[in-house]
From TrEMBL:
Subcellular localization: Endoplasmic reticulum
Transmembrane segments: 12-33
Protein name per UniProt: Endoplasmic reticulum metallopeptidase 1
Keyword field: Endoplasmic reticulum, Membrane, Transmembrane, Transmembrane helix
Lineage: Eukaryota, Metazoa, Ecdysozoa, Arthropoda, Hexapoda
Gene Ontology biological process terms, A to Z: proteolysis
Superkingdom of origin organism: Eukaryota
MF-aspect GO terms: metalloexopeptidase activity
Major subcellular location class: endoplasmic reticulum
Gene Ontology CC terms: endoplasmic reticulum
Domain Peptidase M28: 123-210
């Protein structure tokens, strides 16, 4: 066909570029400006029970400052675990009397398949439950703190770890209500075939009360 050999006029390229710029401005930029204003440390006293973005960002900075946290490395197995435990203990000291606050650290080994084994991977866990709760089921919130060898893992998955930590703080310092206990699982071996989560689901006592976990 003749049109296949015809060259488009220069203004087609300009129109194509302009279309995507307009689309970006109309959708992406508008969505950014619709986001709520992030709260800072100065806002914390007046905004109890709300997400303090600067506090979560500070924790993310501490975590990523450890550098890459590869499974088996000191940064992952010692430094990151200590950072998590220190932050959790600080939250525990601030919790309201409404909650029971249980902290556990799991070092787990097991077998994934006939040829794949995992050994001494770590999980840091908190179970937050109302003292009046009689629910037989738990809700699980899970994120991993280990990384690839080439990255400090800000987005994979440090940001989610920081959000979880801030959410834990908000809930633990509130007065409920909370019908079902919540398990916060900070797992230390996701990049290695999800071994830490697998170890939790298969071997930890809390996993038995999570719906969908065998």
């Amino acid at each position: 066909m003749l049109w296949r050999n015809q060259k488009l006029n220069w203004y087609y390229a300009a129109c194509f570029t302009a279309f995507w710029i307009i689309l970006y401005a109309a959708i992406v930029v508008q969505q950014v400006y619709r986001l709520p204003t992030p709260l800072t440390h100065k806002d914390a006293a007046k905004h109890t029970g709300e997400f303090i973005a600067e506090r979560a960002e500070d924790f993310l900075f501490k975590l990523t400052s450890l550098g890459p946290r590869v499974v088996g490395s000191e940064a992952n197995e010692v430094q990151a675990v200590k950072l998590l435990m220190d932050e959790i203990r600080e939250i525990e000291n601030q919790k309201s009397d409404y909650f029971d606050f249980e902290v556990d650290k799991q070092v787990v080994s097991g077998q994934y398949s006939a040829t794949r084994l995992y050994q001494s991977v770590q999980n840091v866990m908190v179970k937050l439950s109302a003292k009046t709760s009689r629910s037989p089921n738990y809700l699980l919130i899970n994120a991993h703190f280990d990384t690839k060898p080439t990255s400090p893992g800000a987005s994979d998955d440090g940001a989610m770890v920081s959000v979880m930590m801030e959410l834990l703080r908000i809930l633990a310092t509130s007065n409920g209500p909370l019908e079902h206990p919540i398990v916060f699982l900070f797992n230390g071996a996701e990049e290695e075939s999800l071994y830490a989560s697998l170890g939790f689901v298969r071997q930890h006592k809390w996993a038995k009360k999570l719906q969908g976990c065998d």
